[in-house]
């Protein structure tokens, strides 16, 4: 479509609000959460620390972190009627649909947390703790596995893997997922966070905002891209076919998932870190096939289109090596991004301004109304 003067299609480059939560330097390829470089956080912190940082604007002390972990352990348990509701959902439902519906349904059991304002921090913790349980409850049922337990001794990453795999992860598996959760926890005004903030800006509640966000993340141009990367790898099959398959898609003007970004003009720093973890997990599992194929895809896409990988390129390869099915990749993304969504909603409540852009009207005016009986 041709750009109309005065219209910023996709709100590209429009600065909609001020935020202290996350900074993307798209030119230098840096990502900052509340002042801290993502590379330092991925190397040294945990998802729990990062969630605390996003919500409170500072790193927790040891006591504050212990307290948050205890809270997560308690808040993992869902109200029994919600468990029953999830267990009665059609087995062929997509986990993202289950997640969206369950987040919305959880609000029915949390009346105190559905009042917008400071108290929403409780809802932020509740939702972050509950998302792995929602996913685990549904996935275990559709795969005929035993119901899960809250396992308060496990970190969020280890609990998420236990909930989905029905086994305790190894240290390396849990750390790989912990790093993935850290890297996905926030990303400024991405589409789903913007959707959450738009909802919150009407003074609607946190659960409604997160429901909007889950629905927005589902799309293949946003969170859904990592599932499609694995479809591409399966289609390519062997490294020798990589060049032909990718070039063929580009010639047909198809998008190669896991590449390109609205903000980064260089490599997404999250892709750099996940590439290393894809290799590490591949080595530990004795399976470097995905890693090698992805390296080859990168080479061809960069040569042919000058595009760099984004966060979605390598995450799916890690999850696949952990035997997680493709339709759980985006829900895992959500189980991390919920920390960022809720931090943004809390920020929105503190400096609220209804988000309501305008559209340039290009339709007709002054048409003559024709009564129904006279229309041909
Ligand atoms: N594959 C092939 N071509 C691409 C890709 C891609 N992945 N990304 C951009 N391009 C091309 C476009 O076709 C266009 O080319 P043209 O000018 O010849 O028509 C040009 O690059 C600019 O593309 P836009 O769509 O204008 O760029 P935009 O900033 O809107 O796109 C987006 C960003 C949506 C992420 C895009 O790069 C894309 O579709 N990527 C694939 C999906 C993906 O990986 N999404 C995950 C993003 S990260 C996340 O949300 C977690």
Report on this model:
With 376 residues, the protein is mostly helical. The mean pLDDT is 95. Strand 1 (22-25) and strand 2 form a beta hairpin. It has two domains: 18-219 and 325-350, Orthogonal Bundle (Citrate Synthase, domain 1); 225-321, Orthogonal Bundle (Cytochrome p450-Terp, domain 2). The protein has a three-stranded antiparallel beta sheet with strand order 1-2-3. The protein contains 16 helices and three strands. It starts with 21 loop residues before the first strand and ends in a 26-residue tail after the last helix. The chain is globular and about 70 Å long. The chain has helices at 38-44, 47-56, 62-75, 80-87, 95-106, 120-142, 156-165, 171-184, 191-200, 206-217, 225-236, 239-251, 269-285, 289-305, 312-321, 329-350, and strands at 22-25, 30-33, 36-37. The protein binds acetyl coenzyme *A. Acetyl coenzyme *A (ACO) binds next to loops.
Keywords:
single chain; 376 residues; mainly alpha; Citrate Synthase, domain 1; Cytochrome p450-Terp, domain 2; 2 domains; three-stranded antiparallel beta sheet; 16 helices; 3% strand; globular; binds acetyl coenzyme *A
How is the topology of this model organized?
Blueprint: E1 22-25, E2 30-33, E3 36-37, H1 38-44, H2 47-56, H3 62-75, H4 80-87, H5 95-106, H6 120-142, H7 156-165, H8 171-184, H9 191-200, H10 206-217, H11 225-236, H12 239-251, H13 269-285, H14 289-305, H15 312-321, H16 329-350
Antiparallel strand pairs: 1-2, 2-3
Helix pairs in contact: 1-8, 2-16, 3-6, 5-6, 5-10, 6-7, 6-16, 7-8, 8-13, 8-16, 9-10, 9-16, 10-16, 11-15, 12-14, 13-15
The structure holds acetyl coenzyme *A.
Acetyl coenzyme *A binds next to loops.
